Amino acid sequence: MRICVPTATKDGAKAKVYGHFGSAPYFTLCDIQTMKYEVIDNGNLVHEHGMCNPLKAVGSAKPDAVVVGGIGMGAIRGLNAAGIKVYISAGGTVESAVAAIKSGTLKEADASCACGGHDGHSCH
C-alpha cells in the first residue's frame, strides 16, 4: 500500500503533515511494505479554492490512500472517484500518519471534515 501525505518540507518520515492538501508544497509518499519514502512536488500547488485537481497534484504517484490535515470536499470526491481513500490526521509526522494507517486508527474523510477555503479556514 502506498500512502501520500502533504508536507511543507522534504524531510521524509520526519516531515510534518501539512494543514491543507491542495496548498502543500510537497507530497511525501511511503510504501508501507518496504517503508521506503519518496518526496514529489505538488503539481497543482497554485489554484483557486475549489479548483484543486487532486490527481494532477499527486502526479503519477498513484497512492492507495492520502493522509491529510485538511482537504476540500471536491478534492475528497476526486480522490475517492479514482479509488484513493482519504484519511484525516490532526497533525504529527509522516511517520506517525503511516503508523496510524497501519493500526487502523485514522478516520476516513467525509463531508463533515471538509475545509471551506485556503485562508482563515478551520481544517481539522
Secondary-structure blueprint of this entry?
Layout: E1 2-7, E2 26-31, E3 36-41, H1 54-57, E4 65-68, H2 73-81, E5 85-88, H3 94-103, E6 107-108
Parallel strand pairs: 1-4, 4-5
Antiparallel strand pairs: 1-2, 2-3, 5-6
Structure notes:
It is built from three helices and six strands, in the order E-E-E-H-E-H-E-H-E. With 124 residues, it is α/β, with parallel strands linked by helices. The chain has a single domain (2-113), classed as 2-Layer Sandwich (Nucleotidyltransferase, domain 5). It is globular and about 30 Å long.
The SS-based structural class is: alpha/beta
Mean pLDDT: 82
The proportion of strand residues reads 15-25%
SSE arrangement, N to C: EEEHEHEHE
Low-confidence stretches: 117-124
Could you please say which CATH topology applies here?
A: Nucleotidyltransferase, domain 5
What is the CATH level 1 assignment? Alpha Beta
- Tally of helical runs: 3
What's the number of structural domains?
1
**Over the alpha carbons, how many angstroms does the gyration radius reach?**
13 Å
Please provide the count of β strands.
6
Share of helical residues: 10-25%
CATH homology-level superfamily: Dinitrogenase iron-molybdenum cofactor biosynthesis domain
> Which architecture name does CATH use?
2-Layer Sandwich
N/C terminus separation: 24 Å
> Strand order of the main beta sheet, please?
3-2-1-4-5-6
**Biggest pleated-sheet summary:** 6 strands, mixed
Q: Judging from the principal axes of the Cα atoms, what is the shape?
A: globular
